[in-house]
Structure formats: C-alpha cells, structure tokens
Amino acid sequence: MSVERILLTNDDGVDAVGLRAMYEALADDYEVVAVAPIGDQSSTGRTLSDEVDVREHQFGYAVDGTPVDCVVAGLGELVPDADAVVAGCNEGANLGAYTLGRSGTVSAAVEAAFFDVPAVATSMYVPGGEDWWKRELKPAEFAEATRATRFLVEAADDAEVFDRVDYLNVNAPIAVDGAEVRCDRAPMRVTAPSEWYGMEAVRNGDGRVAFSDPIWGRMNATDVPDPVGTDRRAVVDGEVSVSPLSVPHAAEPNAGLDDLVEAYANAD
C-alpha cells in the first residue's frame, strides 16, 4: 500500500506552529488533511468525548475535542480513506515509557493503530530546562522533525515496517539553536523508550499537591540518566530518535494466574 492521503493531527491545536510546519513539509508530496483540536489538548492521553463540534479550517478541520477525538472523527467520518496518520509536530519532546499513555500526540497514533492505519507521532525537543515551554518557536526550528517524518512516511511504508509494528514515536532535536542553523542532517537512531521514572509530588500548605518532572533539569549529555539506545539519550546526543511501538495492553499467556483461577472457586 502506498501512502497518498495523510490525516494530520496534534495536541497543541490546529493553529500551532508545529502543525503548520508539518503540513507544509508534507503537502508537496501528499494530500494532507488536518483534523486537529481547536486549542491546546496536551497531556489528555486517550480521552474520548461523546461527540464533538467540527468546523472547517484552511488545513482541513478544527475539532472541539481531544487528539483521540480527532482521529476517531477523522478516520471514522471526515477522512476515512487516509492511508496514514501523522501526529505533530509536537512542541516539546515525548520521551520515556511513562509519557506514552499521557501524551495526546502519541495517543493519536495509538488510536490510529486500532483502525489498522499506520501512524507516526513526531515531537521536537526544545532546550531550556523547566522553562522550555515559554520559548516562542518558529517553523524553521522544526526542520529536523519534519524532514525525518517525511522520510519515514515514505521509507517505512516501502520497507513494510508497519507490517511488524503499529506506530513510530519520533523525537527530533531542534534545528535552530539561537542564531545557529544546522547545515548537516541529524543522524537517526532506532531506540526504545527510556524506563527512567522520577515524577515528584509535593503537598502544599493550601491542601493541594503539586507535580513536577525533574528530568527537564537533567537534559544534558553529562547528567541525563539514560544509556545509548534509549529515546532520551538519542535526543540529548543530537540524534533523531525513532521508537517502533505496538498498541498497549497485550495479554500475557498464563502469567501465573492459572492456579489462582482454579483456587478462586473454593476461596472464601
């Protein structure tokens, strides 16, 4: 199956600079139809609404809902003949196993897998520590991410990658750092999501509990707690990380439960 029509979505909103950069990178070679949230839906995971309002947008459709709403509405009704789904480019990295179920960008790709449609979720690492999200990004800064996505949409299909995996989680380094523009192409590495987990919770005096992820203060080559071969290490090393993944919740045979099931009949 060759890719001709792409459903493009994200979790930053249909007017986000990352989605625009991705649309423009893909539109020369593919028919691209955006079905993306009206506003920011970051960290909504696989939240699904009962129904959503849809309005036309210059890139396709704007949906008053989550990224998963967009994929279901898109593949189920608005763009049912899409050959692939691209989610992104997300403004900020989606690194580590613990982000996969939380990220709206990645969740859009997971939802596409249940429709049996190949998907690529693409995010860009933005330097700046814990304040990275305050940075105002420009389309040129997404060049590594969009170039890698365009390559993978074509090459992975030709190589029958999606016969073996459901989706690719791509994280790319920023293409512009201050006044410097990368002239060379960042290398690409096949990775596994980092298993490092360090979320912290602190109870305040006002009855609230605040959460923080300390990894953003450790995103440098000497301090990042991940070995070569993980997604986070690849991005810190200036590489494009590609994690080949399948949909979650795979059932494990037995898992030691057979004896428990037999014992259940006689349990108190």
TrEMBL record:
Keyword Membrane: no
Enzyme class: hydrolase
Domain Survival protein SurE-like phosphatase/nucleotidase: 6-182
DNA-binding is among the record's keywords: no
Keyword annotations from UniProtKB, A to Z: Hydrolase, Metal-binding
Assigned EC number: 3.1.3.5
Domain of life: Archaea
MF terms (GO), sorted A to Z: 5'-nucleotidase activity; metal ion binding
InterPro entries recorded: SurE, SurE-like_Pase/nucleotidase, SurE-like_sf
Family: Belongs to the SurE nucleotidase family.
Protein name: 5'/3'-nucleotidase SurE
Organism: Halorubrum trueperi
Upper classification of the organism: Archaea, Methanobacteriati, Methanobacteriota, Stenosarchaea group, Halobacteria
